[in-house]
Amino acid sequence: MKMFQYPIKMLWRTFRIYRFRFTIKRLTNLFRIALSMGVSRLLKRPIVWGDPALLMVEPTNICNLKCPMCPSGAGEMTRARGRMDVAQYKKIIDQIGDRLLLIQFWNQGEPFIHTEFLEMVAYAKSKQIATMTSTNGHFLTTDEQARTVVESGLDEIIISLDGMDQETYEKYRVGGQFQTVLDGIRNLISAKKKARSKSPLVHLQFLVFKHNEGQIHNVLELGRQLEVDLISLKSAQVYSDQQAEVYLPEDKSFRRYDFNGMSRCIKSTLPNWCKFLWYGAVLNWDGFIAPCCFDKDGEFVYGNAFQSQSSFKDVWDGDKRRKFQIQIMQDRALFPMCRNCFEGMRQSYVKYIAP
Predict the structure, then answer these.
(1) Handedness of CA 285, 287, 293, 298 (dihedral sign)
(2) 64-68: long-range pairs with CB below 8 Å, 24+
(3) Is the pTM of this model over 0.90?
(4) Which of 97, 109, 138, 325 is the most buried (most CB within 10 A)?
(5) Please, which contacts does 326-331 make with residues 24 or more away whose CB atoms are closer than 8 Å?
């Protein structure tokens, strides 16, 4: 039964939290995905039925902050930077939106830097697709900005606040302003109350580092004071042993890695399997479809869905995707990005807390 667990969990979470419509097409698509996952594992080769139920959309890979472990913020991303063409985005949603359950508006970059980001959200909601985004919280500075977020129909917004004062916060969120994020959360909560709206669900996220783990109790109390809907404590992803030494917290329950001070190893069985390759896809700002968000530089893209001679389904059903799935099922450990992925981890990479 494990082969069916994730689609069922995603379905239940989406039903419980987000506003969207179950249709025969969406339910049928989910069944086909779950069945193809099960058959693929039994036969040990990729069987592909259905279209993605989850689409990660990257409005832009540009960011206003310089977070040292973010490829975009640290300036280490090799692919071109830009903003998604909204007309092209709408074309993709028109093609597959009737099978989509959820769009996550993130990958690299800060979504709100795209000036038409909320138009993208509203278009997805017009197709009755659930929507969520993740932000550093610097674009909710006015009542008007907060109001437009509520009016867009966005279902969930994750706001990162990784410290309880400016000094601690900016150790990782380089260039960020603690008070700006705090005020933005207050503005959004106020806008929801004025509109008598239950959405978006306001999700306060705290990345746990060595320099802020002593503030966990404080951020939980702050979340309750702010009246956010959800708080999460998330472990950090690092890319080098040096970063591990600097950033990994002393509390090992908030580490994705076993680390002895010299070398690190992710707490994972690293199975030759990745369920996301069956139920989800990443649409980068320029139209390239990547297998997952860990493919930061687009090394393993399946193709470009914005090209006039191809559709999303042409790329999704193409040979490149199947070949990548075969490689993953043969030896996933060959891929450095997979060796730093939480798929197959022995513990959850995030702890959710209701205020």
Answers:
(1) negative
(2) 64/110, 64/113, 64/136, 64/138, 64/175, 65/110, 65/136, 65/138, 65/173, 65/174, 65/175, 65/176, 66/174, 66/175, 67/172, 67/173, 67/174, 68/172, 68/174, 68/243
(3) yes
(4) 109
(5) 326/45, 326/46, 328/272, 328/273, 328/274, 328/277, 329/40, 329/44, 329/45, 329/46, 329/272, 329/273, 330/272, 331/272
DSSP letters, 36-52, are HHHHHHHHTS----S--
Tell how far CA 192 is from the center of its chain.
23
Nearest 5 degrees, angle CA 31-CA 36-CA 37?
100
DSSP 148-175: HHHHHT--EEEEE---SSHHHHTTTSTT
Task: Please report, in tens digits, the pLDDT of each residue of the chain (355 residues total).
Answer: 343 444 455 455 555 556 667 899 999 999 999 999 999 999 999 998 999 999 999 999 999 999 999 999 999 999 999 999 999 999 999 999 999 999 999 999 999 999 999 999 999 999 999 999 999 999 999 999 999 999 999 999 999 999 999 999 999 999 999 999 999 999 999 999 999 998 999 999 999 999 999 999 999 999 999 999 999 999 999 999 999 999 999 999 999 999 988 788 889 888 999 999 999 999 999 999 999 999 999 999 999 999 978 899 999 999 999 999 999 999 999 999 999 998 877 778 888 887 7
Q: How many CA atoms lie within 13 A of 182 on its CB side?
A: 12
205: three-class secondary structure by DSSP: strand
Specify the pairing of strand 303-304 against strand 288-290.
Answer: antiparallel
The number of residues making up the chain comes to: 355
349 in Cβ contact with 294 (< 8 Å): no
